[in-house]
């Protein structure tokens, strides 16, 4: 109690000292940082977070409400500092920017983990797209270890039964072979080779290589002009190939379920019917749709000494997070007279339901969502772009001048709010942003706690020690799942911070 009183006195002293200063004074900003930091510390100590027995005790509370309850100043409440955390993980109820929504316990733990496992930066920029920086290398490493991949196979249903010793097991999996390979014995090489400025490199493609598919399969997924018109990776694509069942003990021994949680009600319906834990994961774990603006500039953002590529958050809604992705230009192919000197991505939550649209949703509903995002992007670029790129905007109006953008190809006109700007929406269960929503953490399961003796789960939606939607959380969950399968303890950086005094490891 004495320590809490000391912290509260220090916070009050800072507020009193800075009160006479104007709002724009740099010291006021420093004061808000101190107020926010001390309020977090006061809450941790006052609520005895470090000695709580219930790991979900503080996750039923909204982080913003928790901060206010512990005395966060009104000035700090309305500052970008209080919004940035929500912005970077799209932590808003129903995606609405005026309804910040994050579980208090996991939010505080995330901040502590971020500080205590700091390794030179809070985040790192990929040097190429995620398929090339992450998926491709992992795939190549597994192939080198003799792992066999079967592409264009879609899971439709998991079946379970009791084993002879009374344990529940996954016994059958219904799978669809969407298309057939022209040379099955040779397998399928997914990579394409391009020649960007950094030199020849293999890249992960966005479409299948038609030359490696049978003629019948090509006709199935292309139009009369030969253009691909079926997205084999979309959850909403219906069945286009033959299905078959693979059986435990014959075709597989162990199952790693690493698909996003949004597919559970569809692909794991039988598991949900027999297991309350799976039904809760499928219906009570939440996610939000997101919207993204991509821009490619003719001029570099580097306008003077000391420039650092920013990842900025807490900017104007609904695209409050901006990342300078200019390093990606070096890994891309552009015509000599139209090379991108700078690349920018803007990201934000998209207002919408906390569960994905169900399988069978008609296409016009997705078109309506895209057009809603395009209108928001147009409004943003007309009114807020000058705060980010003043030299790329019309003088006086502040609207972005499309003449400063590189000419792009391949994007539909419907996805462009202004010429050469592309808007994408992520609304399907494979694309949405996992939420660390109040009251939902108790429904997450750890990788080895599936209720089925031969199945583990992985992803940023399982109990992984970070809980917020991010690549790191998914990787940690995967490593924990590997530990369960192998029976070995795998050391993971920062897991000692995961309330390990009372909590079990993920």
Short synopsis of the structure:
It contains 13 helices and 14 strands.
Features:
506 residues, alpha+beta, 5-stranded antiparallel beta sheet, 3-stranded antiparallel beta sheet, 13 helices, 14 strands, 14% strand, globular, disordered C terminus
Q: Please identify the oligomeric state.
A: single chain
Q: Please, what is the average pLDDT?
A: 89
End-to-end distance: 32 Å
Global geometry: globular
Number of helices in the DSSP assignment = 13
The arrangement of helices and strands along the chain is HHHHHHHEEEEHEEHHHEEEEEHEEEH
Lateral arrangement of strands in the main beta sheet: 9-10-11-8-12
The helicity comes to 25-40%
* Derived structural class: alpha+beta
Strand content: 5-15%
Which stretches of 5+ consecutive residues score pLDDT under 50? 499-506
What is the number of beta strands? 14
Radius of gyration: 25 Å
* Major β-sheet profile: 5 strands, antiparallel
